[in-house]
Amino acid sequence: MALVPRPLAPYDKDMGKNAASVIYALVMIAVVVGVDILFFRHRFTARLMANVGIVLIFGAFYLRFLKRP
Predict the structure, then answer these.
(1) What total of structural domains would you count in the chain?
(2) Which of 34, 47, 49, 54 could hold 40 in an S-S bridge, CB 3.0 to 4.6 Å?
(3) Phi and psi dihedrals of 2, rounded to 5?
(4) Burial degree of 46 (CB within 10 A; 0-12, 13-18, 19+)
(5) What's the domain range around 31?
């Protein structure tokens, strides 16, 4: 009696896209927290402006290079 191999499950492309988005968001959070702690610990206004700038830069990078139609 010969063993018949089962067909492989189809690859879900959305799962890779979701994983990349989660990793991208985690890197963005790590950069924001790192800049807050290293440079702007006691300066609220500068910290807020830096955080907004970092998020805008990450957003622009995502829209330019990572967003797939």
Answers:
(1) 1
(2) 47
(3) -90, 145
(4) exposed
(5) 23-66
Report the percent of the chain where pLDDT is more than 70: 81
d(CA 63, CA 10): 28
Cβ neighbours, 10 Å, residue 35: 15
Kindly report the pTM of this predicted structure.
0.73
Residues 38 and 58: their CA atoms lie apart, in Å, by 19
- Hunting for tokens 């500068």 — which residue is that? 46
Angle between helices 44-61 and 13-38 (to 10 degrees): 160
14, part of any domain: no
